[in-house]
Specification:
By secondary structure, the chain is mainly β. Helix content is 14%, strand content 37%. The strands form two sheets. Strands 1, 2, 3, 4, 5, 6, 7, 10, 11, 12, 14 and 15 form a twelve-stranded mixed β-sheet that branches. Strands 8-9-13 form a three-stranded antiparallel β-sheet. It starts with 10 loop residues before the first helix and ends in a 9-residue tail after the last strand.
């Protein structure tokens, strides 16, 4: 019996052909898919956008209504026409009382981008704390939207605990001491922010002018992280400021105006309360838990039944400490 003939195997050659074939197929698929140009812009759908914040801080409320817009390129500032909605029927309902908002033209603070005036819907009333309001929009042709807000209630308590003499902030040069503001809120308050300001008068060529500047916290001061959640167990709100930052502000005011008469009048502590809608909107915009993330997988906030927007409410409570006429930093 003769042995079977042996044929030389060439697996390496086959592997070589396969390695050449794979990129060729990939290239063919790639070029065949380039018949259609790629655009990162998705389909555009025009939406209604509404803004309104109710408060008892003023006796006039505002509603602003817009339409979203698209641009040819990728720069939204290409748009030079403000998409304001005029001629709508706008009402705010408080139980049995209906406030019809009138279409009003307001001056624009800056005309660097839009040169047209601001169209707003205005109603002359002050929001009542603890009350619920409904916003009703009627734009005609069956286009309407509604939203509801409950304004935060009165604080049940507001008090101060200070670890240093507010009238002599430089007496404890080597110690960092604090003034604490405490408050008790109701369940209608979802978030809050605290503020300490120094109010003073400055003599200018046109006479005495009233001014105020804020005493910042020691660290972590940012406009994007000021509103925080209330203590849901007891409704407690609190914030503090140090004698170091207080004194630094006083020295900065006098140091930047060395030849100007300045009389410091009072310290004002403010507590801002916000409702659920405003708090949720604020946290969507500024509330990323990871400051280094590049993800944007949180949805746009809206409490409107149609389109997008915000119908929220806020209140401000104050605690005042009058400074003595012979305050040491007067000049």
């Amino acid at each position: 019996m003769q042995p079977c003939p042996r044929f030389p195997a060439r697996p390496r050659a086959h592997r070589h052909y396969i390695l050449l074939l794979v990129p060729a197929i990939a290239g063919a698929l790639l070029f065949s898919s380039c018949n259609h140009s790629f655009s990162p812009k998705g389909p555009f759908k025009q939406q209604l956008v509404t803004y309104s914040l109710l408060t008892d801080e003023r006796d006039r409320q505002f509603v602003r209504i817009y339409q979203t817009y698209d641009v040819d390129g990728f720069d939204p500032f290409q748009n030079k026409t403000d998409g304001q909605v005029v001629g709508a029927q706008v009402a705010i309902v408080d139980g049995n009382t209906t406030y019809m908002m009138r279409d009003t033209i307001l001056p624009r603070a800056s005309t660097s981008h839009y040169d047209s005036p601001i169209h707003a819907y205005v109603g002359d009333f002050s929001a009542r704390r603890g009350r619920s309001y409904q916003l009703v929009l009627d734009l005609g042709q069956g286009n309407s939207a509604t939203a509801t807000v409950t304004v935060p209630d009165y604080l049940t308590r507001l008090w101060m605990v200070t670890g240093f003499n507010l009238d002599e902030p430089g007496a404890e040069q080597k110690k960092v001491l604090y003034v604490w503001i405490y408050a008790a809120s109701t369940a209608l308050t979802k978030g809050y922010a605290g503020q300490m300001v120094v109010q003073y008068q400055m003599l200018t060529p046109s006479g005495w002018q009233d001014r105020e500047d804020e005493v910042p916290p020691d660290e972590g001061y940012s406009l994007t992280n000021r509103v925080i959640s209330r203590n849901n167990e007891n409704g407690g709100l609190s914030f503090s400021r140090s004698n170091v930052m207080y004194r630094s502000l006083l020295l900065a005011i006098t140091g930047s105006n060395p030849n100007t008469s300045i009389v410091f009048k009072r310290l004002v502590f403010r507590v801002l309360q916000v409702d659920q809608n405003l708090y949720d909107y604020y946290k969507i915009v500024h509330g990323f838990q990871d400051p280094y993330t590049i993800r944007y997988d949180q949805p746009d906030f809206t409490d409107m039944s149609s389109g997008f927007g915000l119908f929220g409410g806020y209140t401000i409570d104050t605690l005042v400490h009058e400074l003595p006429p012979n305050f040491g930093y007067n000049q």
